[in-house]
């Protein structure tokens, strides 16, 4: 029987130390779990004798003249690296399990807290904090799920739509990235906005939305306002309609030509960027209902918006107003006046249209 080599606790910290193994006639083997491997620094390993073992020792060990075999230092270093990685993986798994258990306990406690608050709240408290409770509860519900399984209540979706409309894309993304699970991503938000009919396509007058608004609010007459505001020059792409927005739309008898910049050719798109100027102004049309019983209750409706380069004439404005007046009548809304700023072209169109709307 030969000298033996054991792995001791000191060996784990001394990769260059040379130990000895004992070769016996025991050929039995036993499966070792990860936890047993990670605890091997406190136990010895006995290697059985076989033909395969002799081949391994020939390759992995140095044989001395007195019958002692020494494990090659390079293999010992690899073994130490393996053991350190095994310990690190085991500790990481334990930490993850501990964190998951703490999260589950915290979520359970928070749900109980929400339920107890629901039972103890009065009418005033319910009206003041109802959305806050729904919002926080929605966040904790999503944190316990996979990212692809996030769900949002109706109130949270309405809040997300309002946040995107009032504060814009950048502010919305800032809130979403810092409050994980609080509000949906932009693709989900765009789908919800499309279903509610709040998405606006450039150059399209939403007379169908005007008709639905007229039925829900209950009015027959309205005032239409029009104004242009300066915007940052930028071209965007609408994948749903395959349309590029940001170039000034042409006016045909004062009416904007929608979906004018559609192309599948890169050369044509390149030509547009090189030869066409980008939009300087955004022209917006709003409709304000007139209700005698409560004139301040109803909010205005955004009818249309499109980019222009400020190259239009007073006759274009007049033709557009007459066309809008006729189409609004088909939606059961009578436009009794148009309001705008003091641009000379608008003022001339107003003078030319004097008496037209009240006569018709």
UniProtKB/TrEMBL annotation:
- What InterPro entries does UniProt report for this protein, alphabetically? THAP9-like_HTH (IPR021896)
At the top level of its lineage, which domain of life is listed? Eukaryota
Acidic residues composition-biased segments: 11-20
Name all THAP9-like helix-turn-helix domain ranges: 129-189
Chain spans, region Disordered: 1-20
According to UniProt, the name of this protein is THAP9-like helix-turn-helix domain-containing protein
């Amino acid at each position: 029987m030969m000298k033996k080599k054991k792995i001791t606790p000191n060996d784990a910290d001394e990769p260059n130390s040379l130990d000895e193994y004992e070769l016996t006639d025991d050929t039995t083997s036993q499966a070792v779990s990860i936890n047993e491997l990670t605890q091997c620094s406190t136990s010895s390993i006995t290697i059985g004798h076989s033909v395969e073992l002799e081949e391994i020792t020939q390759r992995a060990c140095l044989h001395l003249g007195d019958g002692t075999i020494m494990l090659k230092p390079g293999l010992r270093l690899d073994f130490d690296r393996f053991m350190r990685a095994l310990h690190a993986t085991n500790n990481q798994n334990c930490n993850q399990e501990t964190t998951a258990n703490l999260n589950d306990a915290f979520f359970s406690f928070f749900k109980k807290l929400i339920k107890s608050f629901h039972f103890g709240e009065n009418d005033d408290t319910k009206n003041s904090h109802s959305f806050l409770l729904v919002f926080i509860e929605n966040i904790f519900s999503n944190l316990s799920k996979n990212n692809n399984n996030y769900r949002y209540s109706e109130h949270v979706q309405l809040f997300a739509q309002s946040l995107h409309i009032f504060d814009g894309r950048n502010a919305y993304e800032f809130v979403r990235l810092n409050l994980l699970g609080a509000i949906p991503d932009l693709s989900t938000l765009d789908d919800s906005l499309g279903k509610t009919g709040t998405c606006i396509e450039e150059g399209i007058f939403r007379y169908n939305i005007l008709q639905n608004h007229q039925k829900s609010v209950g009015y027959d007459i309205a005032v239409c306002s029009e104004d242009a505001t300066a915007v940052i020059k930028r071209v965007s792409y609408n994948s749903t309609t395959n349309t590029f927005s940001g170039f000034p739309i042409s006016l045909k008898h004062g009416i904007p030509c929608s979906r004018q910049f559609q192309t599948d050719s890169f050369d044509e798109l390149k030509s547009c960027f090189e030869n066409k100027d980008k939009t300087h102004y955004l022209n917006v049309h709003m409709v304000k209902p007139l209700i005698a019983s409560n004139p301040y209750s109803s909010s205005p409706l955004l009818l249309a918006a499109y980019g222009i380069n400020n190259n239009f004439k007073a006759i274009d404005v007049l033709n557009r107003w007459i066309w809008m007046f006729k189409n609004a009548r088909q939606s059961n809304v009578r436009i009794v006046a148009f309001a705008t700023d003091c641009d000379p072209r608008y003022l001339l169109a107003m003078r030319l249209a004097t008496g037209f709307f009240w006569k018709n």
